[in-house]
């Protein structure tokens, strides 16, 4: 009897190879996946926006000849000593612990050459970091690891972290293999344990308490330092309004593409909203309060280029922050390390096991031999180069739109390629005057 | 030694904290009296001089926050986060303290003459806290280092997710939190407890043998599926 011809194998869209591997992994280990990096799923993003450029109705500025300024001042509302940056791209908070000492030093060196700031993370301020960062923002996190009076006074600004884009509503994690003696000592923890940071601040809950907390921090630092409030993007309109009401000088909103050193995959991919969707509601909150450009807005989460930066600024941000992109500039995902990535079961470009401390690039590790691979001077130079490129790219776009300062970019300079991006960013679908959901924030 | 009197009804808080921060290291103004605090927040925060400060009345949130080296005494009650993140020195409140007293404290001694509210000693990181009365629920939550001594009772979930802080309670413990267990009190712990009772001024009214000792069971130090229902 002749056999009935079989259909070729067909993969399920719902049970795709990644999903099947996830179920198999969960069944064999009994624990959820923890990893680094940010959301990897496809999301509406800055790539879905385009600049219009100049035309008959508006004229461009001459590249290389006519000035397009990039300086930005953060903390003009209450602080006696605001933070002055040469370029509106800052380095986001990443801890010593999550990152090696040389990696933190390299971030400081690169940012300082570029004239911008770096930020501490969960675990306190190291002397090396303070030394190499001309402008250093000190994070005030729920765990308060390494929080002390001297560091508070040595900082140039304080960032009260309510949440981060990779895990709004979640606390930090640092797995035992990265809790060396020094990291443990700075955090008052036993070495080698899996550290679970709190997800809520221990001594305040809600916006009314936050207002009192900010007053305390201002009193401690004699009203000198700008106070930022950072939230993971989830309810950006209300979070921005409440942070402003609590007295923030600067609001930092981190979208779901924002990186993390170690978080449950389910959190990274399923909690929070895309960066693109967070900007306009935050800007609207500031505008409704009459404080746009008076309380500064910093946007982070998946910022990769001068184009991304310019688009965020055009939508109303005052600056952007980068984390993952800065690590790649230092040397993360280097194809020259492919053989070592393969040994770890991954490949250059996809490496996300930042939690396990075996980073061949020597960045997300506390192993002294691996950490020694990163030359902080050379890596700092790479970061400075990358920041310079981002800045020049943003200037090129801004000049094309006829802007003499990056902060003069405006939503009218943008159109969207997709209906999703149009609705989220509040700019028209390209070739139309249509904004889906306009006025329905 | 001169006594400096500052009246918070007559001058702004910012002036007070600014003056306390600006004191030279070898100041003669080593004894301060603060009048009319009237429940104000952030009184005497971030002080980093070996001075004494007596606050006559009640204070609001975060009094003596980040205290370093100073001896600060409050004659009334204290609001949320008394002596939060204290680095060193000594803070005493004669009355009660609200929630999160001594939160995240890195060092120094906090003595509470009355009761403390919920989350006393939350995330403590080396501070010693002695409470003459009772403490509320979730006290010493995620306590990392230091000692919490309670002469009265403790509320629900004492020492939840405890790291290496030591807890001593004389009265009843309503319930223990995840990963907190009673342990036999050894000589080392007894000596720590006796020393703290003495420094707090309660040695005459409470003896170490009247207390029970609690610490971390250390079962949650590494993620393991079998302990998932502890959270």
UniProtKB/TrEMBL annotation, chain A:
Keywords, in A-Z order: Oxidoreductase
A GO molecular-function descriptor: glutamate synthase activity
Taxonomic source organism: Falsiroseomonas algicola
Gene Ontology process terms (BP): glutamate biosynthetic process
Record's keyword annotation contains Transmembrane: no
InterPro entries, A to Z: Aldolase_TIM, GltB, GltB_archl_type, Glu_synthdom
Protein name: FMN-binding glutamate synthase family protein
One Pfam family, short name: Glu_synthase
Residue stretches making up the Glutamate synthase domain: 77-331, 360-402
Family statement drawn from the similarity comment of this UniProt entry: Belongs to the glutamate synthase family.
UniProtKB/TrEMBL annotation, chain B:
TM region(s), chain numbering: none
Sections of the chain in a coiled coil: none
Molecular-function GO terms, alphabetical: oxidoreductase activity
Signal peptide positions on this chain: none
Name under which the protein is recorded: Protein glxC
Organism: Falsiroseomonas algicola
């Amino acid at each position: 009897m002749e056999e009935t011809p079989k259909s070729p194998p067909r993969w399920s869209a719902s049970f795709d190879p990644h999903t099947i591997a996830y179920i198999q992994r969960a069944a064999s280990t009994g624990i959820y996946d923890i990893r680094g990096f940010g959301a990897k799923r496809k999301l509406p993003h800055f790539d879905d926006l385009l600049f219009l450029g100049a035309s008959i109705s508006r004229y461009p500025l001459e590249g290389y000849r006519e000035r397009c300024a990039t300086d930005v001042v953060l903390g003009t509302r209450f602080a006696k000593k605001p933070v002055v940056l040469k370029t509106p791209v800052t380095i986001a908070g990443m801890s010593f612990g999550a990152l090696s000492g040389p990696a933190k030093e390299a971030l400081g060196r690169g940012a300082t050459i570029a004239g911008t700031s770096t930020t501490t993370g969960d675990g306190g301020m190291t002397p090396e970091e303070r030394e190499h960062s001309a402008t250093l923002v000190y994070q005030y996190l729920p765990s308060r690891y390494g929080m002390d009076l001297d560091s508070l006074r040595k900082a140039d600004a304080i960032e009260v972290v309510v949440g981060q884009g990779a895990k709004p509503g979640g606390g930090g994690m640092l797995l035992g293999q990265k809790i060396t003696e020094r990291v443990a000592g700075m955090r008052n923890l036993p070495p080698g344990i899996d550290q679970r940071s709190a997800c809520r601040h221990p001594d305040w809950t809600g916006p009314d308490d936050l207002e009192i907390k900010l007053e305390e921090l201002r009193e401690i630092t004699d009203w000198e330092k700008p106070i930022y409030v950072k939230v993971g993007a989830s309810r950006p309109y209300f979070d921005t309004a409440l942070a402003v009401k609590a007295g923030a000088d600067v609001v930092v909103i981190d979208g779901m593409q924002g990186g993390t050193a170690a978080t449950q995959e389910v959190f990274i991919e399923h909690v929070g909203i895309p960066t693109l969707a967070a900007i306009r509601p935050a800007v609207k909150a500031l505008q409704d309060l009459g404080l746009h450009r008076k309380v500064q807005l910093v946007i982070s989460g998946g910022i990769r280029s001068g184009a991304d930066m310019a688009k965020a600024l055009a939508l109303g941000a005052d600056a952007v922050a980068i984390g993952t992109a800065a690590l790649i500039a230092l040397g993360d995902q280097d194809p020259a390390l492919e053989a070592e990535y393969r040994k770890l079961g991954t490949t250059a470009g996809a490496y996300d096991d930042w939690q396990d401390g075996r980073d061949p690039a020597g960045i997300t590790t506390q192993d002294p031999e691996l950490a020694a691979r990163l030359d902080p001077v050379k890596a700092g130079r790479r970061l400075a180069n990358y920041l310079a490129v981002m800045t020049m790219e943003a200037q090129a776009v801004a000049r094309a739109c006829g802007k003499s300062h990056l902060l003069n970019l405006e939503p009218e300079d943008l159109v969207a390629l997709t209906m999703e991006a149009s609705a989220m960013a509040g700019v028209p679908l390209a070739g139309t005057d249509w904004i889906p959901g306009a006025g329905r924030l | 030694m001169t006594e400096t009197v500052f009246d918070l009804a007559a001058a702004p808080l910012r002036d007070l904290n600014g003056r306390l921060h600006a004191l030279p290291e070898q100041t003669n103004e080593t004894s301060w009296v603060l009048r009319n605090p009237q429940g104000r927040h952030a009184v005497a925060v971030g002080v980093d001089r070996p001075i004494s400060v007596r606050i006559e009345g009640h204070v609001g949130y975060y009094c003596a926050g980040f205290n370093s080296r100073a001896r600060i005494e409050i004659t009334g009650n204290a609001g949320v986060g008394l002596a939060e993140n204290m680095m060193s020195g000594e803070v005493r409140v004669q009355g009660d303290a609200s929630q999160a007293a001594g939160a995240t404290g890195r060092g120094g001694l906090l003595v509470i003459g009355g009761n403390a509210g919920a989350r006393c000693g939350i995330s403590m990181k080396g501070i010693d806290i002695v409470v003459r009365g009772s403490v509320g629920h979730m006290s010493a939550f995620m306590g990392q280092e230091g000692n919490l001594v309670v002469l009265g009772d403790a509320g629900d979930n004492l020492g939840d997710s405890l790291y290496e802080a030591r807890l001593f309670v004389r009265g009843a413990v309503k319930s223990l939190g995840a990963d907190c267990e009673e342990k036999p009190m050894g000589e080392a712990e007894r000596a720590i407890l006796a020393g703290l009772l003495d420094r707090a001024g309660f040695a005459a009214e409470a003896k170490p043998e009247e207390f029970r000792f609690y610490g971390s069971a250390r079962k949650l130090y590494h993620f393991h599926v079998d302990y998932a229902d502890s959270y």
